[in-house]
Amino acid sequence: SIYMDALEAFAAVADSIQVGPGEDAQMGPLITRPQYERVSRLVAEALAGGARAVAGGAPVDGPGFYFPPTVIADADVDAELVAEEQFGPVLPILPYDDVEEAVARANGTMYGLCGSVWGADGERAQAVAERLECGVAYVNAHGELLPQMPFGGAKWSGIGVENGADGLLEYTERQLVFRGKG
After folding, report:
1. Is the pTM of this model over 0.85?
2. Which of 7, 102, 165, 171 has its CA 20 to 30 A from that of 159?
3. What b-and-e string marks burial along 164-173, b requiring 16 or more CB atoms within 10 Å of the CB?
4. Residue pLDDT, tens place only, 152-167
5. pLDDT at 29
6. Is residue 84 predicted with pLDDT exceeding 90?
7. Are strands 114-117 and 136-139 parallel, antiparallel or unpaired?
8. Residues whose CB is less than 8 angstroms from the CB of residue 42 and which lie 6 or more positions away in sequence, other chains included
9. φ, ψ at 9 (rounded to 5°)
């Protein structure tokens, strides 16, 4: 019921982000040409498949691997942009009929790095976030990481964690010595 409002709100934030080089920019370039080309291709394919960009949607003209924050509406649920981890500044937003459908879609992928649940009722949103099969589930936020917070994925989204005490344990090797009688 709030699909159009969500599109509008996320598009306003995306459009407000200054992209480019230098200290005045809020977002720099993608790190490599292959990643820039992948994100560009995924967005172009989604748009060719009937999706529409409500913010961004095309690489920034000029040198560098700059791709603006992009909000995609009306993407097919099976589009590669939606179904895979694209690691770009692109957010496809899809409508759903009920929470069960939304959770089933989120968990119906082989990936599980991060997920986020947004809602006016924080307790209800947290209950939904706890059902997501991902390494980090955010409530009314996304992408915020602190050094003391363990970060890692589920399913095909990585092995192990980094940061926090759990991340430090990744650099250790435990040994159990079992001594029987005698």
Report:
1. no
2. 102
3. beebeeeeee
4. 878 777 777 777 777 7
5. 96
6. no
7. parallel
8. 80, 81, 84, 86, 88, 90
9. -65, -45
